[in-house]
Design brief:
alpha+beta, Thrombin, subunit H, 6-stranded antiparallel barrel, 18% helix, globular
Length: 470
């Protein structure tokens, strides 16, 4: 027995009491190669494809002012200041990051990095600078596609990876220009997938990571260990303005579809489902006989939409799109948005207790009727308001309900009758003197046919009436 024990110990076999699991043993690195394990080779390969973006734009601000601005001594050192309360112009500068995704100079970044900019400068990792122009932007998903003139030079670029293959726990790196200190690399893991409710973007299914993301990182790359682009760093959750380990990136699948549409030269157009829904809560799940809350309960479908033509109905619960679970309207819209126009999406639907498949041929939202933007004039309460016909395409552009139609206010002239009545952009004109308004032409005719008006407006979910006599 003693001899057997010596043999086992010599062989390195650990003996343990019955029912006690053997503890994993730590060890020192086996050699110099393991000591020198590093992300440096990966960083060296991908970092040249991440750029810094500098923008300038003119802003009009109201000088709050102080009596000291009229003091000659003060003005000698600080120059002439606009009188308090008077608007003045100033040049606002900001910075962000971007990713080269085509070797001929196509760059993707966040829309909020370049929105309203009059000048955009892209600085490469080798410190060369190029003027850039926006070829397409989509504020609803916070993405913009830029182009620089490389004069035929092929630049380092990143390939897209399939963001649906990411798993919680995967290693990732964030590369950008935080606080303008220069290109910075941080490393972490994928902390979560399919995050929605982050900001007010339409199609959301963010990648969450604990890789440090700070101001200036916006538009930079979230890279997997394969060296491919997994996402575009976009937002952080923070009470201090700095990283607390909760950052969010737009998945590469949505980025790729945006870039493909932009590079095609026809703007950014996404598939349109044409249905509304709500998250299935525990109460709704109980009423539907579901074992757990899951999916999106459809409560409205536009008949002439892809969803309507495919046979989707109010009361259906969409559980998945192309085999990927969806649990809220934003996730459903994200899944549809990542598909290409002309493709067919397969929806896994629960209808009256039965699971069925609904094939939805995807098309873009139509502009029917044409928007017909019109500035209203004359002696009537909506004078000074610019109005247009709502169509699914125009409503999508405005961020409005694509299932609604009618006439919407897009602008209001300061000091006009419409402005004095507090008419706002986004208000929808429903009725005038009890008669329904469907087109701009209807509204013009109804406003001119009277000297007193009862105008019914919808603002968000509220409906109110203005009774006016001029």
């Amino acid at each position: 027995m003693i001899r057997l024990l010596k043999i086992l110990l010599a062989a390195g076999i650990a003996l343990s009491a019955p029912g006690v699991a053997a503890q994993p043993q730590t060890r020192l690195p086996a050699g110099e190669a393991e000591i020198r394990l590093s992300f440096a080779p990966l960083v060296k390969r991908v970092a040249p494809a991440v750029v810094n973006i500098y923008t300038r734009k003119v802003e009009r601000v109201v000088q709050r002012g102080s009596p000291m601005f009229d003091d000659p001594f003060f003005r000698r050192f600080f120059g002439d200041m606009a009188p308090p309360g008077q608007p003045r112009e100033r040049i606002a500068q900001s910075l962000g990051s971007g990713v080269i995704i085509e070797p001929d100079g196509v760059i993707v970044t966040n829309n909020h990095v370049v929105d309203g900019a009059t000048e955009i400068v892209v600085a490469l990792a080798d410190r060369r600078e190029f003027e850039a122009r926006v070829i397409a932007a989509d504020p609803h998903v916070d993405l913009a596609v830029l182009r620089i003139d490389t004069r035929g030079e092929q630049l380092p670029h990143l390939e897209f990876r399939d963001s649906d293959d990411l798993q919680v726990g995967d290693l990732v790196m964030a590369i950008g220009n935080p606080f303008g200190v220069g290109q910075t690399v941080t490393q972490g893991i994928v902390s979560g997938l399919g995050r929605t409710g982050v900001g007010n973007l339409d199609a959301q299914s963010f990648i969450q990571t604990d890789a440090a993301i700070n101001p200036g990182n916006s538009g930079g790359a979230l890279v997997g260990m394969d060296g491919k682009l997994a996402g575009i760093n976009t937002a952080i959750f923070s009470k201090s303005g700095g990283s607390v380990g909760i950052g969010f990136a737009i998945p590469s699948n949505l980025v790729a579809s945006t870039v493909a549409s932009a590079v095609a030269g026809k703007g950014i157009h996404r598939p349109w489902l044409g249905a509304h829904g709500e998250r299935v809560t525990s109460e709704i799940a109980l009423g539907l006989g579901l074992q757990r809350p899951a999916g999106v309960l459809i409560n409205a479908v536009r008949r002439d939409s892809p969803a309507g033509r495919a046979g989707l109905q109010a009361g259906d619960v969409v559980l998945a799109v192309d085999g990927r679970e969806v649990n809220d309207p934003q996730a459903l819209k994200f899944r549809i948005s990542t598909r290409k126009l002309g493709e067919t999406a397969s929806l896994d639907v629960l209808r009256e207790g039965r699971r069925i498949a609904v094939a939805v041929p995807l098309s873009q939202a139509p502009e029917d009727p044409p928007r017909n933007l019109t500035l209203l004039r004359g002696n009537q309460p909506l004078a000074g308001a610019t109005v247009g016909n709502l169509s699914p395409a125009f409503a999508e552009e405005l961020g409005a309900d694509t299932l609604e139609d009618g006439v919407v206010v897009t602008e209001v002239e300061p000091g006009s009758p419409a402005h004095r009545l507090r008419i706002r952009p986004g208000d929808r004109v429903i009725r005038v003197n009890g008669r329904a308004v469907r087109l701009v032409a209807d509204l013009q005719a109804l406003l001119q046919a009277s000297d007193k008006w009862s105008v019914e407006l919808q603002r968000g979910r509220q409906v109110f009436t203005l009774n006016v006599r001029l």
